[in-house]
Specification:
The chain is of the alpha+beta class. It has 3 domains: 83 residues, Rossmann fold (3-Layer(aba) Sandwich), CATH 3.40.50; 60 residues, ATP-grasp fold, A domain (Dna Ligase, domain 1, 2-Layer Sandwich); 182 residues, ATP-grasp fold, B domain (D-amino Acid Aminotransferase, Chain A, domain 1, 2-Layer Sandwich), CATH 3.30.470.20. The protein is 29% helix and 27% strand. Strands 9, 10, 11, 12, 13, 14, 15, 16 and 17 form a 9-stranded antiparallel sheet that branches. Strands 3-2-1-4 form a 4-stranded parallel sheet, sandwiched between helices. Strand 9 and strand 10 form a beta hairpin.
Length: 368
């Protein structure tokens, strides 16, 4: 292992969103200083950091300044300028290869497939004619996705028949991928953290989406031990092939006892927020430890835990819930965003206790 970066050193974070905020809070608790690079003043991460460089993410001089003032650099989202990440890769333990792969759905699928991980069938789509040919080859239902800049259900459309094809023209101005629809029983995610010498696994999360946005994460996932082991092995394969140091998330579908790769995120992930209260070490703490070259500790789930995303429309109910005298342990994290907008992630609520099903039922009453 290389010489670790110790407390009182400075960590630079590219991105000022909620993931950067929670990275910064973990880093500050461990004694590090934090500088944020983000174009927006008073971003969620900048509110808790020591300093902020206000500049666009593709500003080379801003990156140079961040690197010169930091002992190590990390990023909190995958749409980072890959050329700049490559230029300054020696300062970024996550590297740039994971960005190249995760920024582009086709590259991501090809990478997973070449690593021996099961994916649903897929085809490249560059225009309307390609789309018609691909639907004949794959059949319905299928999912059309833009290769870049899709998240939280954006940039994708579920197709049931030829009648849906004309609706796709709005996203066919860019490279797309058409995937066979996986009729899944559950969607799960597995989060792993790696440094040069070790890999640690977080408990597998079972995820429920509403309108393409993650709504609930139940931990531990209600799957058998064999699938848990397989999920961890898939994540370990990917993180090692990427030569990636830090926290990485892999989303998988469970269908008829088989795991199918969906996508990955080279950063801490929304479905891992439960770990702040639910585990002895959070995904953010292990990420900071990994990028600073510190030993990783075995992660243990303290109790069954449910995480609820609090969107703009959910905020009044979440605030009302935490004012009640309930017997269920809970904690509301708010991200410091200025305006509560529909479907905007304003925070998350964590509930923990002895009965997972009870926690899940309670979480449903809070936001529905």
């Amino acid at each position: 292992m290389s010489v670790p970066i110790l407390a009182s050193s400075t960590i630079g974070i590219v991105g000022g969103g909620q993931l950067g905020r929670m990275m910064a809070l973990s880093a500050k608790a461990m004694g590090y200083k934090v500088i944020i690079l983000d174009p927006a003043l008073n971003s969620p991460a900048a509110q808790v950091a020591d300093e902020q460089i206000v500049a666009s993410y593709d500003d080379d001089s801003a990156w140079e300044q961040l690197v010169s003032r930091s002992s190590v650099i990390t990023y909190e989202f995958e749409n980072v300028d890959c050329d700049l990440a490559k230029k300054y890769a020696s300062a970024i333990p996550q590297g740039y290869k994971a960005l190249q792969v995760a920024q582009h759905r086709l590259k991501e699928k090809n990478f997973a497939k070449e690593a021996g991980i099961v994916c649903s069938a897929y085809k490249v789509v560059n225009n309307y004619e390609d789309l018609k040919e691909a639907t004949v080859a794959l059949g319905y239902p299928c999912v059309l996705k833009t290769c870049r800049y899709g998240y939280d259900g954006k940039g994708q459309m579920l197709l049931h028949s030829d009648a849906d094809l004309t609706k796709c023209k709005e996203i066919l101005h860019q490279e797309c991928i058409l995937e066979s629809f996986v009729s899944f029983e559950k969607e799960i995610s597995v989060i792993v953290t790696r440094n040069k010498d070790e890999i640690v696994y977080f408990p597998v999360s079972e995820n429920e989406h509403v309108n393409g946005i993650l709504k609930y994460s139940l931990v531990p996932a209600r799957i058998d031990c064999d699938l848990t082991t397989q999920a961890q092995e898939i994540a370990a394969t990917l993180i090692e092939k990427l030569d990636y140091n830090g926290t990485l998330a892999v989303e998988l579908f469970v269908s008829n006892g088989q795991l199918y790769f969906n996508e990955m995120a080279p950063r801490p992930h929304n479905s891992g927020h439960y770990s702040i209260e639910g585990c002895n070490y959070s995904q953010f703490t292990t990420h900071i430890r990994a990028i600073c070259g510190l030993p990783l500790k075995q992660v243990v789930l303290r109790e069954p835990t449910v995480m609820v995303n609090v969107l703009g429309q959910d905020l009044p109910k979440a605030l009302s819930y935490i004012q009640k005298d309930t017997k269920i342990d809970s904690y509301l994290h708010l991200y410091g965003k200025d305006e509560a907008v529909v479907n905007r992630k304003m925070g998350h609520l964590t509930l923990w206790g002895t009965e997972l099903e009870q926690l899940y039922k309670i979480s449903k009453t809070i936001t529905e």
